[in-house]
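Q: What would this complex look like in 3D?
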Amino acid sequence: MFKKILVANRGEIAVRVMRACHEIGIAAVAVYSEVDRPALHVRHADEAYPIGGAASSESYLNIEKILDVAKRSGADAIHPGYGFLSENARFAQSCADSGVNFIGPTAAAMRAMGSKTKARQSMERAGVPFVPGTSRGLESLQQAEEVSARIGYPIMLKAAAGGGGKGMRLVHAREELKAALEEARSEAERAFGDGEVYIEKAIIDPRHIEIQVLADEHGNTVYLGERECSLQRRHQKVLEEAPSPVVDADMRRRMGEVAVRVAHAANYTNAGTVEFLVDQAKNFYFLEMNTRLQVEHPVTELVTGLDLVQLQIRIAAGEPLPFAQEDLSIRGHAIECRIYAEDPENNYMPSPGKITSLAEPGGPGIRIDSGIYEGWTVPMDYDPLLAKLIGHGSSREQAIGRLSRAISEYFVGGIKTNLALFRRILADPDYNAGRFDTGFLDRKPWRKETACASEGIGEVAAIAAGMFTVFGGGNGEARVAANSPANQSVQAASSWKVAGRREALRGA
Amino acid sequence: MIYEIAIGEKNYRLELDRASGQWSCRLDGRSVEADAVLIRPGTLSLRLANMCYEVNYERLAGGLRVWIGQDSVNVEIRDPRSLRGRSRPGDEHGVKKLIAPMPGKVVRILVEQGAQVEAGAGILVVEAMKMQNEVKSPKKGRVQKLLVRQGATVNAGDVLAMVE
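A: Here is my prediction, written as structure tokens for the whole assembly.
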């Protein structure tokens, strides 16, 4: 087993990996950029090394500097987390070349899956069901028109190197195709340095369901059930759960077996995720394979009782999987909320800054994987994920209840977060009934509503504000703001928040 | 103490006194049974009649904000004794300010000072947390002043440019 692992990441995932290391007696090495010296992952580490400027390209994406730290610290393995270098085949290869274990799949497996068109070609050979379309980049507008006519509109243009919704365009009719193709190509070129674009038939309002797989280096591959990831905004996941409300045991087995076939086709090892689109008739289509640990891995951990990061480490150290497919079962239900530093009342603009106050929930069935602390300044240089709040219960209903309760205990002051959005989702009748798909958040009218204050909440807030002032505003935090120019625009909370509170008050 | 408190369109008149640990509270002339414990700076445990509220308070770029659970309202408190009239939204003779919508870095400036722009034309681009946001002209007119340079770090609410 490894003695020391370098964690080539930051934020909550770096902390998560270090915890896994410490639990099995492995020392953890942090790397950090110049703005991350006070970051939580440095505080959790046994050793920490500065690796350069705030820009990711100078630090967390700098392969040479990270390998240099591995050498200097004597780390025998590197865990890449997610994002940054986690799906970079050149990095995996460089680790192998310099004699450091990369905790993840081989560079060859990453390359096989990294290009979506290449992945489609190998899946075609393996007989995996996928969405009709092209398995190669488009050569011309004429070809695009022919393919689209054959599979039928609406179609989706996608970047071969894509991810995160970049280089994606939904096309409803032939007239839109030319402009969309040009836009998708130039966006893909800008985002990935690769303008290759292909066509898929657009599945309207699909569900996005993925299967977690684990494969050791001895030919054993298992699936750990599914995660329902349909709640997305701008193609970014917002809330995930396991199991999916629409997947039964038979469908789980069929999807799991396809996922294992996908992994075998790529000679895949370590943890990976096979993503599927599921249409309204519950047909599922292979979408892509993510060759890394996922942000949402905790929901799988809670319903399987496994520690995925520790299993990743053991697999990378050459150990065989300690269980077989038939030993695995799904227990209860888990839901994860991604807490982002963004402002729901201002079109979800990023909201970096100092966390002046932080109250985190606890109690039964609640897990928080956090990368923040009170007094820390969230830098503007990285992605806005602050923490993941995960609720677990014996049923979906109990998990929802625990999460809603935990959200009412959670407070992040100083910066804006999307916490209030989750209360709204969890209280939504359609969500509770399991009726949702990837279009859910965009369709909900409460997503964008902003309006005026309500009687009840205003009175409580008015009295509280006065009391803060009497208390001296808690160390000068509150002051009488007479004539303060900052108050020209006194805005009310959005009406759905107020309405939510009123509902809560009635329930109390 | 008497406070005038504005929340949205609504104004409240709050009379608050604390003598030997007992609060006396009148809201718009109505007596309210209230007590509060300051848990720590910025956090209050409030009881109104027998209803309990956990209240947080913060100063943000946009003003003062009071949180009751996950609900929040922006609040303006005025002490009538120092009242000199509410400040009006500035309309400075048709000059409009371009405001930073979020903290971040100015990664591109799209126009030169003095340029004529249409309403909605992009003036500059602010980036934070891997998201770029084009800040657009609030009106048709001339870019009277550019107040930031490329590479500058800005806070939410900062004035970036003036368009006349």
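A: To summarize the key features: Chain A touches chain B through 69 residues (CB under 8 Å). The mean pLDDT of chain A is 89.
Q: Very helpful, thank you.
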